[in-house]
User: Which sequence fits this backbone?
């Protein structure tokens, strides 16, 4: 059985289970975070259709990410969470699905949904079943401890790593995910796109550029998001995964996304000379339960 061991435990987040739980709780309690620990009791309401979440070290982006994960505590738990992230390291194949087995974090193991991985790979030639592309990548990994903290061990994941982030590829990935969700109507499936926004520019510049990108995201306008990223030189690392999730949501009937929180690393550290932008964004099902 494949066991994907953590690549950034002890770097992007704490290594020990106790310290990691405390760190996640600090993200929720942080002044930039939701301000309280989420209650884990399930109430009426489906999980969101999709989240867009940052993937920097928890000390920088964790409080922003916490806004999205805070929502899950009061919702019905998804069966499978498809997490789409960029490939920062340039290794492996264009669009890789981690094929099977488990992903390990300090909080335990999460099973990969082999059934859905096989379905996508057999139905769409754009995907490859490949674990090597995921071996060093942090963008998917850092989402999982937050999910484990909220959901326990009752969910599966489907990690998808995108080296090719062209508009054509992103739209095809989105189309395939929408078809998968329509086909598997008996399953509760949630989508997560992992991205940071502007990298290493002054705070004021990052906020200005990122506000343009976020406006396109809230309208689920994939082509316009791709255009402004190119024209304004927005160094958003996971635009392909974001466009994929936007396209899937649009095809499933969603018409808008909602910004939950935006901040930069400068808001955390106080140094606003060179920052990275982070956003937490949700997309609800077009028909809420």
Assistant:
């Amino acid at each position: 059985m494949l066991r994907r061991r953590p690549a950034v435990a002890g770097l992007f987040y704490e290594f020990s289970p106790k310290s990691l739980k405390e760190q996640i709780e600090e993200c929720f309690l942080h002044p930039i975070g939701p301000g309280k620990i989420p209650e884990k009791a399930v109430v009426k309401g489906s999980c969101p259709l999709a989240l867009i979440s940052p993937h920097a070290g928890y000390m920088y982006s964790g409080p922003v990410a916490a806004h999205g994960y805070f929502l899950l505590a009061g919702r019905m738990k998804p069966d499978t969470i498809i997490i789409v992230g960029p490939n920062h390291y340039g290794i492996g194949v264009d669009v890789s699905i981690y094929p099977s087995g488990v992903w390990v974090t300090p909080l335990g193991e999460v099973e990969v949904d082999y059934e859905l991985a096989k379905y996508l790979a057999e139905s769409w030639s754009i995907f490859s079943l490949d674990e090597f592309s995921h071996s060093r990548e942090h963008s998917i990994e850092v989402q999982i401890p937050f999910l484990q903290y909220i959901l326990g061990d009752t969910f599966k994941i489907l990690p998808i790593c995108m080296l090719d982030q062209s508009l054509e590829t992103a739209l095809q990935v989105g189309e395939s995910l929408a078809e998968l969700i329509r086909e598997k109507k008996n399953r509760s499936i949630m989508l997560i796109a992992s991205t940071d926004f502007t990298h290493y520019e002054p705070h004021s510049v990052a906020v200005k550029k990122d506000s343009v990108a976020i406006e396109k995201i809230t309208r689920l306008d994939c082509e316009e998001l791709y255009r402004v990223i190119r024209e304004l030189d927005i160094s958003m690392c996971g635009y392909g995964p974001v466009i994929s999730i936007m396209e899937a949501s649009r095809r499933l009937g969603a018409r808008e996304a909602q910004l939950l929180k935006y901040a930069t690393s400068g808001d955390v550290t106080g140094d606003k000379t060179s920052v990275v932008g982070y956003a937490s964004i949700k997309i609800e099902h077009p028909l809420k339960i």
Remarks:
- Residues 116 and 135 are 20 Å apart (CA to CA).
